[in-house]
Amino acid sequence: MPDHPWWQTGVIYQIYPRSFQDSTGNGIGDLAGVIQRLDHLSGTLGVDALWLSPFYPSPMKDFGYDVADYCDVDPLFGDLATFDLLVEEAHRRALRVIIDWVPNHTSDQHPWFRASRTSRTSPKRDWYIWRDPAPDGSPPNNWLAVFGGSAWEWDEATGQYYLHSFLPEQPDLNWRNPQVESAMFETVRFWLDRGVDGIRIDVAHHVMKDPELRDNPPAPHIGERAFKPLGEYDLQRHIHDKGHPDVHEVFRRLRSLLDRYEGDRFAVGEIHIFDLEELAAYYGDLDELHMPYNFSLLWQPWEAHRFRRLVDRFEAVLPPGAWPNYVLGNHDEPRLASRFGEPQARTAAVLLLTLRGTPTIYYGDELGLTNAVIPPDRQQDPWALRVEGIESRDGCRTPMPWDTSPTAGFSPPGSADPWLPISPVHRARSVAAQLDDPGSLLVLYRRLLAYRRDSEALRLGDYRAVDSTPGTFCYLRSHHDERVLVALNFTGVDRSPAVDLTGRGTVVLSTDPGRQGVTPLGGVVLGPHEGLVVEL
Ligand code: NOJ
Questions:
Q1: Full-prediction pTM beyond 0.90?
Q2: Has 270 been annotated as catalytic?
Q3: Where are the alpha helices (DSSP H) in 16-79?
């Protein structure tokens, strides 16, 4: 499939480095650990690209999303030589490597910010967003931090506030200063020169704010919500503190930087925008991001008509030639199997790997891990520790269970306690426990990935929804004369989708391992939560 770049035809697998494989026995995953598992990822599971959450030097106030040096590896995770080896070993197995790039904010320990806060006249002062207080001493405007409270932190020494859209230890960079852009672009080149295939851009839409820093207006009462509740943050319409249209210029320039490299270097943006047309603007004229991540399905109630509506809508608003994607899990959301339900996690696997576009699998979702329960004294997530009512992200970040041993194969035997506890429920769902079980979710993922690899209809084909009975979502994927029907039962009872298709098809796979052979298309009856893939 030479006309399609790897990031369109491949499947991405997200690794949270702290939690994937600990090679040293300190209870924290590391890059050497990832190298140990590359054979599993490329050979056994069968994914095509890895996205590594941040591994840079960091005080770890937000577990690496507070970067103190964009061009190095935190000693916890290894060093640059280990990173280079990881890229080399991944490439040897035809696995691409995507790194997390965090442009909106640095750590407050980054040398740029340390210099910036020394005085109002520091050459780095304007690299961050500093403002005088309002006349009564309060913050310069009403902006709120995602992680609670005002987005402004008072700096006694220099008598000004600085902006932080997340933690106070994560000051926002001032992207309106051209020196910031060139320094940050330099950090992208640093990794591209080392052979990295792509970047995932953290909160990409945040980098440009209203130049006048106007107050956000209050939010109208939210009826049906598109995303999880964010507490006080939900009380405003965030029209001025992020997503300023100038952001598109930044991404056009970033895209031309990427395009100057050989080998289809790729950029995907983490963009929490739920108006799909607005989201699609981040493709530009195919001259901005290769894809903005589409989170619209993440928090949908598990109802067929909602999923169909959102997929149809995204397909409809995509600019010509733009490549879609759908995200069902990541390191910020409760585990898919807890959000949608455990039987639903099987149906979701079929959905994720058969929709048009690039799937991203969050590590452990292929095992059906549920959100782990973390005892109060082991809680780590700074967001949940700061803001009441926010569900901790720890539950989806626990160590990968590789086997049923006491350390679950995450750490060598006899290691220190892992940074987050391993749930006994997870140990029972380990890779080793599932690999030889034909009915396991892991085997279903393997089969889906293997079929997808061979199926041009799934990798490249068109998408067309097929009308079906309530509670079911059916679509055709076709490429030249290859046609595949996907039929998903979103309910817990038998359902006939009653699609208006005649003839018979061959079952490729189903969430029900017992289903095989030839099936009538119109008259097929789906079992509870069944996801079925049929070749026409
Ligand atoms: C989004 C990341 O996915 C999340 O983990 C992080 O806390 C925030 N951005 C801040 O960088």
A1: yes
A2: yes
A3: 31-36, 38-39
